[in-house]
Amino acid sequence: MKERIKTMGQQAGRRSWAEPWKIKMVEPIRMTSKEERIKAMEKAGYNTFLLPSADVYIDLLTDSGTSAMSDRQWAGMMLGDEAYAGSVNFYHLESTIRDVYGFQHLIPTHQGRGAEHLMSQTQIKKGQYVPGNMYFTTTKLHQELAGGIFVDVIIDEAHDPNSEHPFKGNMDIAKIDKIVKEHGADSIAYLSVAGTVNMAGGQPVSMQNIKELREYADKHGILIYLDATRLVENAYFIKEREEGYKDKPVAEILKEFAGYSDGAWMSGKKDHLVNIGGWVAVNDADVADKLRNLVVVYEGLHTYGGMAGRDMEAMAIGIKESIQDDYIRARVGQVQYLWELLDNWNIPIVRPYGGHAVFLDAKAFYPHIPQDEFPAQTLAAELYLDSGVRAMERGVVSAGRDPKTGKHKYPKLELVRLTIPRRVYTEAHMDVVAEAVKEVYEDAKNVKGLKMVYEPAYLRFFQAKFERL
Ligand code: PM9
């Protein structure tokens, strides 16, 4: 008799669980032929950002602004109060942020980098250091444009794709202390702490670490600002991996974590389950005043900051949906599902699984391609060519050049990110993606690298073009 196939839950020795939603509306997607994909990739200069989405089958470029909104959020869009000043949706959003994150003053922005701009311009003095848990492309650029000097103070394990450390997003206080000892506490603008560190593989920060950072910061009179973009996912990992939190709701863990900081900036396009929007929120009234003064220059009035009233309403509703335990378990559970499939096939991936994506280790895929020939860029292109799955380079192209020497920066991690949009794809899509990755891995030794033929000045990964070597 045929052996029965086991469900995912049975394989893991537990009862299965499913997404806490059902599908009401669908968006057709198109499969393409290999010939079509070869043409599209050449035209896009081997950069997945330059592919038209109509040529993409399963889009794992990013989880940013790509979520499916709920029927409640769409209904909320109809309640948009598009008054220029004092929209009711702003007050709804403000009270939601106070309730969920605990921050007192809210300044909305059009998206995350608008918030980074305001925070960097008001909180960094020229020449000050900004210690952070690994760089993020737009965050670091805004910190540098404001005259700051970014210093990576994440723990060493974060740079090792094979380390199983459960909280690879943690900051190393000894590295911060070195800056304080050498230059004084005044030389530090603030500690820039990101939840589930994007470039490290979506790896979380522990509650223990943020508590210790708070203690250290208080001792030296230093501020802590969070990049709260994926902080709900971070809170979920604390529940799953840190002692003492197993029985606490994610909402409670999130608020406790945010409570150790002085404020945060946010790309609402991720955790908040919306397609656009962001914010900065702080507890200090003077800092809020500075932010409000600047938001009107770059974003819009302080009660909309570049968002329509309807967008603020959808965001306020999305925030409440994002902190439901069964939602966040299914969200991270889908990432875990894809990660386990690939891990079972011994495909080189960043360990352990992170919150928003599975990261392929391109150096291990292509040991014969030097970093100068862009292994991760090559791998993202190969994946698309194989199956129409779109992923994103997170390696030497994303790291950019050293502003002093003009040379490429060579990050230890040379990764391709398979980023999972929230509430969009099913387990069957994940199976298709896993099989595509396996196929590309099996063909790895036949692949050659790329050369860069066009390079923009800022955030080059978005628009750079390449040719095959
Ligand atoms: N993250 C992502 O795909 C979208 C653009 S960069 C490729 O991961 C963090 C941790 C982010 C982030 C964007 C931003 C900027 C700030 N912090 O894209 O401007 O992951 O809303 O946010 C992207 P916005």
> In terms of per-residue confidence, which ranges show pLDDT below 50 for 5 or more consecutive residues?
none
Fraction in beta strands: 5-15%
Average pLDDT rating: 97
Q: So what's the CATH class of the largest domain?
A: Alpha Beta
Distance between the amino and carboxyl termini: 52 Å
Q: Characterize the main sheet.
A: 5 strands, mixed
The structure class reads alpha/beta
Number of domains: 2
Number of strands: 14
Radius of gyration: 22 Å
Strand order of the largest sheet: 2-8-7-6-5
In a few lines, what is going on in this structure?
The chain has 469 residues and is an alpha/beta fold.
What does this protein look like?
The structure is a single chain. The protein is of the alpha/beta class. The protein folds into two domains: 2-63 and 325-468, Aspartate Aminotransferase, domain 1, CATH 3.90.1150; 71-322, Type I PLP-dependent aspartate aminotransferase-like (Major domain) (Aspartate Aminotransferase, domain 2). It is built from 17 helices and 14 strands. It has helices at residues 8-11, 34-43, 71-77, 88-100, 112-123, 137-145, 173-183, 207-220, 231-241, 250-259, 285-298, 309-322, 325-344, 362-365, 375-387, 396-399, 427-442, and strands spanning 58-59, 105-109, 129-132, 149-152, 191-194, 224-227, 263-267, 278-282, 357-361, 389-390, 392-394, 415-419, 450-454, 465-468. The protein has a five-stranded mixed β-sheet, with helices on both faces. A three-stranded antiparallel β-sheet has the order 9-12-11. It has a two-stranded parallel ribbon with strand order 1-10. β5 (191-194), α8 (207-220) and β6 (224-227) form a beta-alpha-beta unit. α9 (231-241) packs across α10 (250-259), α13 packs parallel to α17 and α15 packs across α17 (427-442). It is globular. The model has no long low-confidence stretch (mean pLDDT 97).
